[in-house]
Amino acid sequence: MPSRRALLAAVLLLPLAVLAQGGSALQDLRLTRADEQRLRLDYSAKLELPRVADEALHKGVPLYFSALAEVQRMRWYWRDATVARSTRSWRLTYQPLTRQYRLSTGGLHQSVETLAEALARMARASGWLLDLREEPAGDARYELRFRLWLDVSQLPGPLQIGLGPGALLDLQQLRELPGSDLLPHAARDAQPPAIRELAPAPTPQPGPPRE
To answer: Are the C-beta atoms of 169 and 53 separated by less than 8 Å?
Structure first.
């Protein structure tokens, strides 16, 4: 019987199409090198608010969402080293007087007409920059961990108690990356080409004996 650790690894390495919960799903996730000191993350998801959370929002309860992007260098002899890490957070509220939704993040506030618009602002990012803590090595192995979730820990206590599995919104992806994907473009272009093994030349056949 497979161990719990093996089963967890198998789940985390499922393709993006399987990483769905309810009506929410992670659709695209890309990590590239931005410049000498940063990586660039792009993601796209479909977010659908669970019914319990939707009812709480429209009764005046603010909802909190978070996103995490982390790149680690894999080490068999010690715990993995964190190469880059960044987080984002949002606060979503409903204004009954104006019938608008207010989305706040990092001191910025936006008001939108529909819940779908508010969720769409969190559901995708282009050019999310992650500061590098060390220069990636071309011959090392790395893991990208991404998570986008509704932070139920910030809801009022009585509401947390009544939450069931259907109230969760938590999309996760763990992806293994070769170090060559994280190198600067100049260094990547300078990588030596792969050596191809040539087929051995045919052995010359002896000709007819000379008279």
So the answer is: yes
For the residues of 85-101, what is the DSSP string, one character each?
A: EEEEEEEEEEETTTTEE
- Give CA angle at 77 (39, 8), nearest 5°: 70
Structural domain range at position 51: 32-66+77-157+165-184
pLDDT tens digits, residue range 40-57?
999 999 999 988 889 999
Round to the nearest angstrom and report the end-to-end CA distance of the chain. 76
Measured CA to CA in angstroms, residue 155 lies from 122, 158, 159 at distances of 19, 8, 7
**How much is the pTM?**
0.75
Asked whether residue 176 is domain-assigned, the answer is: yes
Q: What's the pLDDT tens digit per position in 107-139?
A: 899 999 999 999 999 999 999 999 999 999 999
DSSP string, 114-148: SHHHHHHHHHEEEEEEEEBSSPPPTTSEEEEEEEE
- Burial (0-12, 13-18, 19+ Cβ within 10 Å), 24: buried
Q: Which one-letter amino acid corresponds to residue 181? A: D
